[in-house]
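Entry 14. Structure prediction run on the chain below.
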Amino acid sequence: MLDRNTAPATQEVAELKLPLPNVHTLDNGIPVYETRMGTQDIVKLEVLFHAGRPHEKKKLAARATAALLKEGTTTMSSAEIAEKIDFYGGTLNIPVNLDTSNVILYSLTKHFNKLLPIVADMVTNPVFPTDELGAFCERNIQNLAVDLTRGDVVAYRKITEFIFGEHHPYGYNSSEESYRALTRDDLTEHFKRNYHAGNCRIFISGKTTGRHIDLLNTYFGKVIPKGEAEDIAFAQYLPTPEKVKVPHVESVQTAIRVGCKLFNRNHPDFNGLYILNTILGGYFGSRLMANIREDKGYTYNVFSSLDAMIHDGYFYVGTEVGNEFTEKTLTEIYREMALLQEELVDEEELSMVKNYLLGNMLTMLDGPFNVADVVKTYVAEDLPINDFDSLTQTIKNITAEELKALAKKYLKPENMWEVIV
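Output returned:
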């Protein structure tokens, strides 16, 4: 009989190895990372351009350009694009990212040759119709008006603005004025300057063959123009952190964000901080959750996040609480940071977090599409793919003493911006 009063024994994840992709180079120099795995006749294609906010000349141009790629080309209308993709059972996504513009296609293997020309046409011959740009702006203005009624959205916008600066690509916020200022010429200029081979990376995964690579060379390698990647540099912005209160009459709760500027994944301390953040507030069993939700009952959800972009990164704690619990919640947030600076994480908690993270990483390697996503993360951020192994080794071997030292170095209250909405 199964004894449901006794939890099953914890099993250590013995080995994690990221399957390395096959790397091909198209005629125009675009690298293709092929993850040839899987048993189902499905292929995922992701075409990535370094054409996000850091590459803009005008605010929101990157987002609008990516969104309107599917709204018509010199040979097809938006309706024809949608109809053809639907007819062949494909799925097309163009997610919004800060750093990159990505076009993602899921296709049955047998129809890849039918759908690939459509994607190629979108990223080489878009027309950016003026009426579609107007509709895009109106939709986003309406969505923004709804979002700004939410305290958590306002708090997130404010803390990123304070950390990076209101004119920084990672710090500026969208507004009705910035949407209305967009013109078709802005999108055309952004497209011509950034959608070229020097900024492009292609990731293909699933049940692939050499035929798929040949097709990529035909429709991308011989068509997308060559170009040089642009060097990105930002002006130094290091303001003194402050405590900011933002009145928000429509909110029945108080949104709290506490955070600071850090760095991207290239930094030698990033992997260790990734583990420290998990302990503090990076999973459901975290210290912030156990204290502020489970013990005190101040909130339904509290978390901490270590967000890494290509050129920078930041850390923050977020929660929404009843107005009467604001100060008490802030006290507990700083208290948990202080405990990590003053006391060693005990072996049982550290072992649990390590097993949790390794289990997550095991899931990240489950199937060709997940593996390709991991490969894309490292390639997009210009990191060696074998840094995945470095992360797993850090998780397995990091000590309580090292975590305490990281907490002392980076979780200082005087370095934290505090935003209360």
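The chain has two domains: 22-221, 243-420.
Filed with the rest of this week's runs.
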